[in-house]
Amino acid sequence: MEMAPFRPLSAMTLVAGVSCMQLVQDRDGEGQRPLQDVFDAEDRPVLEAVSCSLEGKTEKQKNPHPKGSLSFAAWVCARLGGWTGYYGKPEPVVMMRGLYQFRAIQLGYEIAGIGCSYSATHP
Asked: How many angstroms from the chain centroid is the CA of residue 84?
């Protein structure tokens, strides 16, 4: 087999793995990493909208992290990946599932034309 086709695939896998591990490492907010470590600045309005839709009625079910932080995004990805907030900390597989779910939602925002206009009116 020729190695050339596997180089882009390997690079994409590496980026996804590193992004997932960055989310796992900052899930508690202790690292205080900026959102831009994993996401683009344009992703922030989508993350905030999705976070609102995932929050429950109790304090335990609300996103406790500051908006614009990587820990805020990690909470969103964990919830999208199936984490309830009650049983332990979200593991890498949960974060990866949530990150994939977020990317699908983000694509929907872009297709609907909400992404750009939404971010322009809501900083």
From this structure: 15
How high is the mean pLDDT in each 10-residue block of the chain (123 residues)? 69 78 80 81 88 84 87 91 84 90 88 57 36
Two structure tokens written together for 73: 């995004």
Q: Rounded distance, CA 12 to CA 31, Å?
A: 25
* DSSP output for 53-104: HH--SSGGGS--SPTTBHHHHHHHHHHHTT--SSSSPPPHHHHHHHHHHHHH
Helix (H, G, I), strand (E, B) or coil at 102: helix
112: amino acid identity, one letter:
A
Q: What is the value of pTM for the model shown? A: 0.78
Query: What are 69's strand-pairing partners?
Result: 34
